[in-house]
Structure formats: structure tokens, C-alpha cells
Amino acid sequence: MIGAGINKWVTTAATTLESTFFGASTMNGDLTKWDVSKVTTMATTFFQAAQFTGAGINTWITTNLATLAGTFKGASKMNADVGGWAVTKVTTLDNTFRDAAEFTGTERKSRETERTYTREKASEKVCKSATARARAREREPPQLFRRERERAIGASGTDPPHRGR
Question: Predicted confidence band at 128 (pLDDT cuts at 50, 70, 90)?
Fold first, then answer.
């Protein structure tokens, strides 16, 4: 198997996997033992890794991920279970599963239960989470600004006039 031995790499300090297997069209190593808990970007990690099926990535701890743009783009045989990935910090999903033709988004909740999503629904699920977080951030101005505004309104009873820059 192309990629044999790659599971022995020590990845504990890695913060980016961007383009790691970009264009590695025959790579299909088992990545079960990789520690990606510090990784923030996986942009184009498996881009055009056409033979990669996703062996081992279902075990990854992805709590720090922010970017998944093009991660599996062109990884046409990738069909790993990524339903357990934490994506609450992800803000960029452009083309994450584009041309990942065999990806069905299978998410195993238990031995007895299996739900299957299409590529679009899996991507939509992640997008909704990222969009909701971004909207929540927009609604909440910084605490300092809020306190200053409250003080100004309290003193005059109206919003302070906007000042030119």
C-alpha cells in the first residue's frame, strides 16, 4: 500500500496540515495514530489524493479546526466517517467535499444506528454551525463598546452622535 508507515509519524506539534497530501494521487495510508488535536487548518490536505479512502481519520480529535476549504476536493475514493469531528470552530468550508465522488457522509451513532447523509447535507450541517456562530458574534458587540454606549445613553437618554474619522 502506498503510504504504509505514515501512521508512525509524530504529529503532536502540527498546527496545519494544509496541502500535506496535495496531488498524492496514489497515497492511501492509515492515519489512525495521527494526533491532529492542535491543527487549525486542513485546507487542501487531501486535494486530488484520488486513492485515499480516509482510513483512520474517523479517530481524529479536531476541536481546533478553523479551515476545511478543499480538504477532500478530488479525493474521489474518500468515504471515511467524519461524523464525530468537532467542527464548532470551523469558519471556512469552501469546496470541502467537491469531487469526493464516493463520499456519502456516513455517520455512525452506535452499532445499531447508522444515518447516511449526502455530501451536500454533510457540508450543509457544518456550514449551518459555522454560520450560526458568525451571526452570534455579529450580534454581540465587544463588552467595552457596549459599556461605553450604555454610559452615553444613560447620561443623555439618547444614542450619542456618530463621530467622523
Answer: low
Give buried/exposed letters for 125-145 (b at 16+ CB in 10 A, else e).
Answer: ebeeebeeeeeeeeeeeeeee
Residue pair 39/15 in contact by the 8 Å Cβ criterion: yes
Enumerate the domain spans of the chain.
1-157
Distance CA 18, CA 73 (A): 13
β 114-115/107-108 pair status: antiparallel
Each residue of 104-118: pLDDT tens digit?
775 444 333 334 444
Predicted TM-score (pTM) of this structure: 0.63
User: Assign residue 153 a region: left if phi > 0, alpha if psi is -120 to 50, beta otherwise?
Assistant: alpha
Displacement of CA 11 from its chain's centroid (Å): 18
